[in-house]
Fold this protein.
Amino acid sequence: MPRQLPRHKVLTWFYKLLFLALSFTAVRIYVGFHLSSSNLQGEAVDSLSLGFQREFLWPKNEPIIELALEVAKKPNIPPLLSNLRSIDESKLPHKCGIIFFYHIACTGGSSINHWFGKQVKLNGPHTSYWTKWGRNEKVEASFIKGMTKQTQNIGPNEWRFVHAHGMSYFPNVSEVYLYQWREEVESQGCGFVVTTMLRDAIGHTISQTKGMIKPNLTLDQFMSHLEPEHYNQRGHFVTQLDYLLYNMGPRNEYNATKEEKVRRAIEILQRHFDVLLLSDYDRFTVIMNKITGWVPLKLRASNIFGGDLNYSYAELQKIKDLTESNGDVAFIDAVKHLYYPGTLDYLVV
């Protein structure tokens, strides 16, 4: 018969193990609370620090961490027309490359996505379509892995279209990959074109409200996450500014000011986006055809809402006020001034 330990020794070991487990849990809770409650305006937490990258961001490998630290050292770019990414038309079309389309909901992205799908079919075996998206944050890991594979071994006359949508990629914290992917593609003598479509800020919010019909929500319920006190919540929809920064994650996890959010969004656009337009679909197809050498194809509207949206003056005022307070109106204004020069010429005497 096996020897049994005295009852008091068993209890002693049990309490020692319990103490160690509780101590470890307390440390984890403290670290998590400290990170989630810190404000981006301060210097308490550096999201690009080595420790933060290793502990909280996927994937945990040294080359990406080192690249992230290099990104952290890059100076802030003044929001000037001369600092925007540009394409040398004299070198078009590129013989090969990747088009990376960051699809923001309710901006005509479905129509653009279908247009690219048709172009892939029309332009033969050297053109391909790839996407990976879903409603779970874990999708990003699969997307990044798949996208990294897409950037490798591109044929001399090959074009690959990548559709990023629905939690597939979080630009604010995963910016480092855009640098890595561009470097890999361009090292093969091919073009790497990052693009998205935006629209009027308040019109975008109104368009999103069609999503409250099926679950039968009130406007207050549908837009509650945009209330200032709910900055760390996920909502029933995502504005353009928040989607560009946080995808479908919490609206403003670090409680940054709207000015800081706009500054960061413009910084990401300036650093990485080659083609950015505001509801300008015909011009979009012309630019893409110039870049790729594809045969012109008309872009047709899809995923169109056929119902009616009726609001009172007070409800429209609420939509306007919450969209403005979130920073989206200022964001689209900044985009207009940068990417559509001349919009303020009427002010010049």
User: Anything to note?
Assistant: Confidence is low (pLDDT under 50) at residues 22-62.
